[in-house]
Amino acid sequence: xxxxxxxxxxxxxxxxxxxxxxxxxxxxxxxxxxxxxxxxxxxxxxxxxxxxxxxxxxxxxxxxxxxxxxxxxxxxxxxxxxxxxxxxxxxxxxxxxxxxxxxxxxxxxxxxxxxxxxxxxxxxxxxxxxxxxxxxxxxxxxxxxxxxxxxxxxxxxxxxxxxxxxxxxxxxxxxxxxxxxxxxxxxxxxxxxxxxxxxxxxxxxxxxxxxxxxxxxxxxxxxxxxxxxxxxxxxxxxxxxxxxxxxxxxxxxxxxxxxxxxxxxxxxxxxxxxxxxxxxxxxxxxxxxxxxxxxxxxxxxxxxxxxxxxxxxxxxxxxxxxxxxxxxxxxxxxxxxxxxxxxxxxxxxxxxxxxxxxxxxxxxxxxxxxxxxxxxxxxxxxxxxxxxxxxxxxxxxxxxxxxxxxxxxxxxxxxxxxxxxxxxxxxxxxxxxxxxxxxxxxxxxxxxxxxxxxxxxxxxxxxxxxxxxxxxxxxxxxxxxxxxxxxxxxxxxxxxxxxxxxxxxxxxxxxxx
Amino acid sequence: xxxxxxxxxxxxxxxxxxxxxxxxxxxxxxxxxxxxxxxxxxxxxxxxxxxxxxxxxxxxxxxxxxxxxxxxxxxxxxxxxxxxxxxxxxxxxxxxxxxxxxxxxxxxxxxxxxxxxxxxxxxxxxxxxxxxxxxxxxxxxxxxxxxxxxxxxxxxxxxxxxxxxxxxxxxxxxxxxxxxxxxxxxxxxxxxxxxxxxxxxxxxxxxxxxxxxxxxxxxxxxxxxxxxxxxxxxxxxxxxxxxxxxxxxxxxxxxxxxxxxxxxxxxxxxxxxxxxxxxxxxxxxxxxxxxxxxxxxxxxxxxxxx
Amino acid sequence: xxxxxxxxxxxxxxxxxxxxxxxxxxxxxxxxxxxxxxxxxxxxxxxxxxxxxxxxxxxxxxxxxxxxxxxxxxxxxxxxxxxxxxxxxxxxxxxxxxxxxxxxxxxxxxxxxxxxxxxxxxxxxxxxxxxxxxxxxxxxxxxxxxxxxxxxxxxxxxxxxxxxxxxxxxxxxxxxxxxxxxxxxxxxxxxxxxxxxxxxxxxxxxxxxxxxxxxxxxxxxxxxxxxxxxxxxxxxxxxxxxxxxxxxxxxxxxxxxxxxxxxxxxxxxxxxxxxxxxxxxxxxxxxxxxxxxxxx
Lengths: 513, 306, 296
Known about the structure:
Shape of chain B: flat
Shape of chain A: globular
Distance between the termini of chain A: 42 Å
Helix content of chain B: over 70%
Oligomer: heterotrimer
Helix content of chain A: 25-40%
Largest interface: B-C, 76 and 59 residues
Low-confidence stretches of chain A: 1-29
């Protein structure tokens, strides 16, 4: 049929194709990374519309979806699905120019319709704030979207692109076609990996999306295996059953450092941990006296806690605002001085120590709480540990049901202002009382368009928080993961402040020599 | 005969009814079941929606009717965390529990039956006493502690077996042994007493009088008859094993029904807890029914007795 | 824990020895139980350290006889530096209290209902027996977990839950006893003499079933303690930071992989000793007090 076909040629071709396919399948078989997850994967995390203001859903969102802009290596607000954006001079509108030819996993191309749709269907954290402030989303062109605001809002991008999932784009036609429930069972996004299968509580399997706009992932198959038990997770890594194990702490992390072939990857997240004093506004409570609160601050031995629980990788801080947040003010370093703590207690009239009631915490962090408890006892403050499972804890925290001492934390995205809003200012979700001077500062900065002035106001706000010892900050937790011998680039630590492996398209395996 | 079966089935339905009633009432024990039926962290509005959805403001018997109706139709509620029907989750994990239980049962019978026979045959002497000790150990050592000690020896010190997880037969060995341990002792006890009864029966005495060798007496005649109650107990225990494996499955991170229950507790995912309990109870009632009827078919004395 | 409606397989007609140990008084088990009780009562004086306070700098110390251990922490320290020995001692208190209280609750309810059910007969009997059978069908641990999920774990709740789960075992056995007692002479005489049912149940029946109740109580103690330990291990038992042996097992599990054996083996040994002793005592009591109960 073909001219010049010779037997040798055909044989050669056949040989080449066989060898080629063998090499391909060998590479494909190798090209699979399994990540052992410390939490059970919830289907709500497949859908950006349900992002709950915690960091965990982003573990999966970075794999399956993409956003207008998101944190990337070197840029906390890197343009992704949008090539660029501009603000009008009056600050009332944001214009986005979308990237052309971005494909979803089902082959459809992304348009402004999808962006508008994704914003409007968003019902996760902060959705009410955004719906309130955004007057309308206008499609000016197939690839141009304009967000019109009711009033100038300097934090719009922070909320849209970072603190919420509204900027993560899903395909309108597909979602409308299959419905919300079916979407969670077979999600389609614009991210580097597409959904293959999900067995609840067991495993999520993803496949590389060759048409990803940024680049095709080199690892062809990605699975997340759910192993909530820490020892089992590590055991699986040691036996080579998984390639990465998320969240390995304390003595098990020690074990990793002693195991050849395994490496430890600590990453500091954006989650400061603290002790809150919900009763400080009550004149009858011992916590009303700032000296007592300062005593707690001085009593905590952060260094030893750090060494013991996170092998020294956590970032000790004197602030409840994450260090990598916009408008961050650097307070003086925290001090450990139990003698001075006892001195302060004496001055406050509580010289022999006192029974301070309950110490509430998220049960996942009971280990921290137990250490803190010890430290407090050493200076005479006696408390009872009351751990609560995470969801119940945050609910009780937000409903203002907790008394005495609360060990809290927040890994939500945002900036110093968003943190202040939730945790310091009157009316905030987790605020049990307020100080008028701080409220004034906050109100001022919310109106302030000039960045320098705003920074100054926010700095003064944070300073006031520090001086009043509204909180006793502990640290910014280091999330420690362990990586096995097959992995070259694990993605851990590439994006500042993000503790999970990302961007997933950068993951690579060591090539066989 | 038919009468017996009909009566027995009637009892089972009564048991199922009482079981469902018990669970139904206990859920309402705290006065506000909405706090259980709703996702942890939900708002007051959500709770109100749940109250309407489950008809919690309606009279109790109306609620119970809906409760029963939904269970019968296979709707055991939806897990908050997984957003999947509990029934689906249950059946996804069931095979794992079955594998574990079957292996554990094999262990328990392999250990229990021979030791029980030995104890019966050498009654009062060394092997009987050893058996006594073994039975006591089975009763007194919690299965999860056995599991932890096994991990210590075989994983940490010797490195022969994986400490937890699933996937290969090596993962199966330790949890199956830990789970089967308690039942091995129970089966040994039953084998022993059953064997003793048979050995004292007229039938065996006759065989002895006939001059048959002792080994044959034991091996051929006594053994088979003695085994019947043990096998039936084993059948029931298989189902029981699936339900009590929660701690062993947690220790070894074995993804079965027990693990599902543990997740339900940890996540405050009440539909899972309720579903597992209901299905577990129903399974046991059904197995008991099945075994009783089977037994009645085999052994006429039972029918007459009841 | 297994349930069957099969007729109970009768004890050997083939003589002679009873299954369990014969006439020997179980000295060692009783001593162990007394020791545990003693430790539980005087925990405050016996424990060398505060069980709830530790020092991170001294965490994961092995027991004194191993390298790295010290006499100060005889049995080593846990992951936050708390003394294991002190925690075991205070844990004994929790186990004792929960165990005894739960057995008491279960025993009281079960005995009373067993008497009522056995003596009165009729529909009362039917209802109680049906409920008993049904609740027996549900494995105790699962049922306890279910209840704990509803009411939330606390020491008191656990006692009530365990009592509420285990009374059925009492009721069954006591009812059996009562049924045979009903036929006895002295009961018949009492009826003839015109005693009210309540008087008969209280004055005549009850004292005669007390023996069985006691035997059951000791046998149940072991089971209850294992269940409590299981609940604590799963995180729905006595809440931290109260030291409970089951909780120590849960905490210690992480250290297992790294070879910190004392955190799991020691609490487990304590549980085992207590349960074993209770079982041995119960068996001896059974043989001594009421041979009829050998069916158990």
